[in-house]
Amino acid sequence: MQTIEWQDFEKVELRVGTIRCARPNEKAVKPAYVLDVDLGELGIKTSSAQITAHYSCGELIGRQVLCVCNFAPKRIAGVRSEVLVTGVYDSDNRVVLAGFDQPLPNGARLA
């Protein structure tokens, strides 16, 4: 594992957001959802996420997630993805979302 300096970690904008809308990304080669994530003062940002194995669109609404907010926007299967919703691969290589056990303000930064 490569080590980094604290200043490197501080460059990553990891913030809490609440999923407001989730819909299938019809143009995606691999199954994915288009998510609208409320990041408080940063506004509502769009993400394309391959998280269909464990989550339905309905159960994602209102869920708080941890997002990387300072990647450059990227076009993914016709969607302008503005944030990366974080998660971890399970033993079957399916994404489990990173989350929180208490409600947090949208836009709060990981400390």
TrEMBL record:
<dbReference type="InterPro" id="IPR008231">
    <property type="entry name" value="CsaA"/>
</dbReference>
<keyword id="KW-0694">RNA-binding</keyword>
<feature type="domain" description="TRNA-binding">
    <location>
        <begin position="8"/>
        <end position="111"/>
    </location>
</feature>
<keyword id="KW-0820">tRNA-binding</keyword>
<dbReference type="Pfam" id="PF01588">
    <property type="entry name" value="tRNA_bind"/>
</dbReference>
<protein>
    <submittedName>
        <fullName>tRNA-binding protein</fullName>
    </submittedName>
</protein>
<dbReference type="GO" id="GO:0000049">
    <property type="term" value="F:tRNA binding"/>
</dbReference>
<dbReference type="InterPro" id="IPR012340">
    <property type="entry name" value="NA-bd_OB-fold"/>
</dbReference>
<dbReference type="InterPro" id="IPR051270">
    <property type="entry name" value="Tyrosine-tRNA_ligase_regulator"/>
</dbReference>
<dbReference type="InterPro" id="IPR002547">
    <property type="entry name" value="tRNA-bd_dom"/>
</dbReference>
